[in-house]
Amino acid sequence: MERIAERVPAGEGNRRTGGDLVGRKITAAAYKAFVFALLAAPPAFFYFIVFRYSSNVPIWDDYEVILDFLLRYQDADGALQKLRLVFAQHSEHRLAFSNVATLALYKLSGAIDLRSVIRFGSLGLAALVLVFYWTFRERERKALYFAPVVLFLFQPQFYEAMMWAMASVSNFYVLVFSFGSILLLRKDGRFFFALAFFLAALASVTQGSGIFALAACALFLLLKRDFRGLALWCALSGTVLALYFGFYEKPANHPSVTKAVLVRPVNTLRYFFTFIGASFPYPFLMGLVFASFFLFLTWRGYYRKNPALYCGLVYVFMTAAVTALTRSGFSVEQALSSRYRIVSVLFPMLMYMAFSEFLQGRRLKAAVFFPAVLAGAVLFNVHANVSEFRKFPGDNFYRNESMRRWAMGYPSLLFHDYEEGRRIMLESIDRGIYEPDMKRPVKSQ
What is the pTM of this model? Predict the structure, then answer.
């Protein structure tokens, strides 16, 4: 039988090859654009909010932590007294990093602008997301699989911390230093050990919860079986804790920890689980879910796969536990406060990263787990922005209006003790430390 060969017109094979190449390039470009949008859009909108609606009006602790600190620093006699002021206790915290940042921003401009403090604080989240990216052990398409982390982090559920100068620095940078110290211990050598300890010690004087970075890093060294390093770390940590709690005074208005444990343990547990799940509907139930996930990861030995991420989870659980012990006496509802949600939102982020690594190489991850989490993270981010965005213009107007009314003679300063706030405000203006965006009051009040 005669075989008839199919003839291909000249050049058609080359055209097909070229077409396939162009198609692959278009697909690759579309994929890169999609990933770029997922990674860039949330922080872009987040920083638009911060730069557009931040206000140069002090609120609450800004009076004591920023303005009055600068007044007392100017009045300090000698370097030793200034050093004591930098490390002085405020409530249950020692805010040395915030104090140094305040001094630096004041020296750069000659007067403190609270918008600059807020914006500097918000940059801590950009540093934090880089730390999480380096902590994440994803072998394929890392940028794509990291997108839910960005979507969970860059959203305005914690709007109070975003727009509160004192809180934006302490709440955000304590996380950068804590997780950064754990990450550095992955590396061997004295230099990385020293740098990790420096960051952990810095975390402890950025916010009170930073103390737990010392414990989380000690656990990491134990998991790493670096017993010599662990012994040195514990000795150095003991020194930091002795300095921290030397002359420490329990804030008079804070609830009793003893009562939280012995008298109202159920209330404390409710606060703990509500705090963990505060970023979601049914927060108590979600707190139980995240705690169960953590126990599952521990049971399956996840601490051997990525001890840095596991110790990061231990750090946020310790933060939640001690917050419950020290704050549950105020009310369980306080666990839902927006200023704390920067911690609460870490639980879904870190759990996602851990389970993504746990499921690595399994078909379930690409087919079900990642698409479901990505869709959920997009919905979470969009809902947070839609529901919270309207608060920013109103808050900006409220703060500026309160300052305008004070300039007209009304007692409208946003501070719990008006007379003390008035003293701090007037002295700050008289000395040129602070320059409000309107004239000083026309009469005393």
Answer: 0.89
Distance separating alpha carbons of residues 441 and 422, to the nearest angstrom: 10
pLDDT at 207 over 60: yes
350 in a domain, yes or no? yes
The count of C-alpha atoms lying within 13 angstroms of the C-alpha of 95, restricted to the half-sphere facing its C-beta, is: 24
C-alpha to C-alpha distance for 146 and 144, rounded to whole angstroms = 5
Distances (CA, A) of 347 to 131, 149, 169, 288, 317: 16, 11, 21, 11, 9
Looking at the domain assignment, is residue 441 inside a domain?
Answer: no
Residue 324 lies in a domain: yes
Total domains present in the chain: 1
How far apart CA 398 and CA 413 sit, in angstroms, is 11
Nearest to 275 by CA among 337, 209, 189: 337
Confidence check: pLDDT of 295 > 80: yes
- Structural domain includes residue 20: no
pLDDT at res. 441: 44
Q: Residue 34 to residues 27, 30, 41, 373: CA-CA distances in angstroms?
A: 10, 6, 10, 16
* Reduced DSSP (H G I as helix, E B as strand, rest coil) percent helix, strand, coil of the chain, to 5: 75, 0, 25
Helices (H), 246-306: 257-258, 265-276, 283-299, 302-305
Reference 68, options 430, 419, 428, 413; nearest CA is 428
What are the Cα distances from residue 64, in Å, to 28, 89, 427? 54, 11, 13
Taking the C-alpha atoms of residue 210 and residue 207, their distance in angstroms, rounded to an integer, is 6
Give the integer Cα–Cα distance in Å for 189 and 19: 52
Q: How confident is the model at residue 272 (pLDDT cuts 50, 70, 90)?
A: very high
State both tokens at 207.
Answer: 């916010």
What residue numbers bound the domain in which 181 lies?
Answer: 53-365
